[in-house]
Amino acid sequence: MTARPELDEAELAAVAAAERFGVSVELIPCDPAYADTAAFCARYGYPVDRAANTLLVASKKEPKQYAACVVLATTRLDVNHAVRDLLGATKCSFASPEEMSALTGMKVGGVTAFGLPEGLPLYVDARVMDLDWVILGTGGRNGKIRIAPEVFHRMPGVKVVDGLAMPQRS
Q1: What architecture does CATH give domain 25-165?
Q2: Residues 137-144: what's their mean pLDDT?
Q3: Which of 19, 42, 49, 59 could form a disulfide bond with 89, CB atoms 3.0-4.6 angstroms apart?
């Protein structure tokens, strides 16, 4: 493993959670100004088709239901069909930054699948599983994690979903 960048408490917890699954975790230091996926890939020379985003979705009606979804940066999450159907909700949207932060303790631009609250559903688009490694957030804006998607098969309760995401529109 590489030297740890200056990670905050949430990031340290997320990295520790990832390491518990017995898959190699490589930490990549990141200037917080370049934490957003496209900026990170351009600045540090990683291919965008190897980057994945963890997105938090919320049902519109009370009681609110939430789910975290991991999709490749080259795709877009199918919130209005796939996620809505998985949650059994009538309508869903992306959680607000305030909801996301309150629920996960993570920062926008660094949300990760590791260290999420217990009981929060985690859905992973099947395309992610086709890669031998992927770049994910650390829970904050100070670094990224390079990890094998195999980790999702080792995490309890993760559901790999065909068609969770769709190709980006041109």
Answers
A1: Alpha-Beta Complex (3.90)
A2: 92
A3: 59
